[in-house]
Amino acid sequence: MIILETRNLKYTYPDGTVAIQDLNIEIMKGKKIAFVGQNGSGKSTLFLLLNGTLKPSQGEILFRGVPFKYDSKSLREIRKSIGIVFQNSDDQIFAPTVFQDVAFGPSNLGYSKEKINTCVQLALEQVGLSRFKDKPPHHLSGGQKKRVAIAGVMAMEPEVIILDEPLSNLDPVSADEIMDLINEFNHFGSTIIISTHDVDLAYRWADYVFLMSNSRIIGQGTPVEVFKDSELLKKAGLKQPTTLEIYHEIERRGLAYGRHSPKTIPELVNTLKPLELMWVEVPPGVKEGDNLNLGVMYGEYATQSPYEAINATVLHIHSDGRAVVELKRKGIKAGGILLYDTENYSLPEIKQILKKGEITFVGAMGKKSKILAEQDGIQLDVTSGVIDKSILMALCGKRCLILTAGGMVDHALKRIKEYVEKSGIEFTVGVVNREEDCQWLKESRSSPETLKI
Ligand SMILES: Nc1ncnc2c1ncn2[C@@H]1O[C@H](COP(=O)(O)OP(=O)(O)OP(=O)(O)O)[C@@H](O)[C@H]1O
Predict the structure, then answer these.
(1) For residue 120, what are the β-bridge partners?
(2) How far apart are alpha carbons 199 and 34 in whole angstroms?
(3) Which atom of ligand 1 is the closest one to the Cα of 45?
């Protein structure tokens, strides 16, 4: 239901300043409405028009569908139904005591003494000022004066409460208290209209926002609709609410999950993708959206399994060439490297090892071993850089067999052992046909993953 409406409203001050023009708005009952605009955009003038303090130069205002009339009886009715709290409480508070000040409105409405007493006491209770009722209002703090002004309006039990810059000059705690109070009135059915240049407040609080600029309404809608339109905000000389600004940056960098317009800090935090992010150097030519392979992680860097293959999607490339990437982890099981001393060569034994050991990668080091393999038809996957390639294959989960002889066996074993110790990545390693090396395996590894041969 529309409770307040203006049609072609215009107001010109006696000095010729046009403060309101072409103003057509509809305000729905029970809603929280914010008029947002720069200094001098016309908010206060509009509010004075909306409670009948000023009379339009042109156009009309309707309350519950009935046009305002400006005789004193009609004006009293309007002010009873539509209360206004001025920006500066000193403009509103003038009686010798808090009680008398709050009683001013109800007395003007011609209420009986008992009714005045009841509604003033109730209003003072609601704003938490009962104990100050006999104090002179000018001895109160700014926040307390604001409460007195609100109580004065409350005491008339208006359907609509208009508050011009309700939080100006208030410290953050007092501001929160005033907003709690306002929200309580709204909860019990009052329509609340505020003016503010605080975009953050309007964005998180209002049900509906009117954007004012140069005496006109230049935009209106839900806070999300109004505040996402940065061009419109620029026109009104305003900036985006901080939470929305941070969110758009998060979204631009590809870090937002789903589509949101967070209004509070917890909502903002919830928009972050549940992802693992990392800054990495990217080679030239890599684009946002590309996939990179970052290798294998283990130890403190592996979060889900002892070894993880890390792929990454590039989300955002910074101007310095570094990029934010989203990690995609894949748990891998390290394989193993078996060495076979070809001094004690036996083809049936090798065939059995290849089969039962589930060997998928075979290499040979040294001329003798290569010749043996060739003669007996053992297919070699690698014949140079055998140790390093085997380590890589073991890291990828493969089981490798290296055929080599004599001192080369010890050399290979030492290299692999060093790698295992330095890297912290444990994979099975040993000489299959030499007893003492298997012994070394048992001693040096806490939980050896032995090949079942
Ligand atoms: N009594 C007056 N006589 C002449 N011009 C006035 C008077 N009061 C306000 N104005 C002018 O009317 C225009 C709108 O002023 P208004 O106070 O309504 O703006 P506002 O949006 O409430 O500003 P603020 O955010 O600073 O309170 C401004 O140009 C202002 O200078």
Answers:
(1) none
(2) 10
(3) 18
Strands 336-341 and 399-404: parallel
Asked if 306 and 319 touch (Cβ cutoff 8 Å), the reply is no
| Most informative mutation of 10, 15, 17 for ligand 1 (most atoms within 8 A of CB) | 17
Task: Tell me which of 121-130, 195-204, 404-413, 435-444 is least confident.
Answer: 435-444
Residue nearest to atom 12 of ligand 1 (CA): 19
Ligand 1 contact via 21 beta carbon (within 6 Å) = no
Q: Give the list of residues 6+ apart from residue 259 with CB closer than 8 angstroms, or none.
A: none
Give the Å distances, CA to CA, from 213 to 36, 194, 197, 450: 9, 16, 11, 77
Ligand 1 centroid–CA 18 distance in Å is: 9
CA 355 to chain centre: 56
Structure pTM? Answer: 0.67
What is the ipTM, given to two decimal places? 0.97
Q: What is the pLDDT of residues 283-306, one digit of tens each?
A: 888 999 999 888 777 766 777 777
Q: Is residue 262 part of a domain?
A: no
Could you tell me if 286 and 354 lie in one domain?
no
Q: Distance (Å, rounded) from C-alpha 98 to C-alpha 83?
A: 18
Q: What's the CATH code of the domain at 392? A: 3.40.1010.10
CA distance 332 to 296: 9
Same domain, 167 and 302: no
Distance of alpha carbon 141 from alpha carbon 146, whole angstroms: 9
DSSP class per residue in 359-377 = --EEEE-SHHHHHHHHHTT
Within 188-286, where are the H helices? 199-205, 223-227, 230-235, 242-252, 265-270
361 and 393 Cβ atoms separated by less than 8 Å? yes
Task: Tell me, in angstroms, the distance from the centre of ligand 1 to residue 41's CA.
Answer: 7
The residue nearest atom 18 of ligand 1, judged by CA position, is: 42
389, 382 contact by CB (below 8 A)? yes
- Give the tokens for residue 50: 């909306």
Task: Count structural domains, the chain.
Answer: 3
Whether 439 is covered by a domain: the verdict is no
CA of 70 to the centre of ligand 1 (A): 22
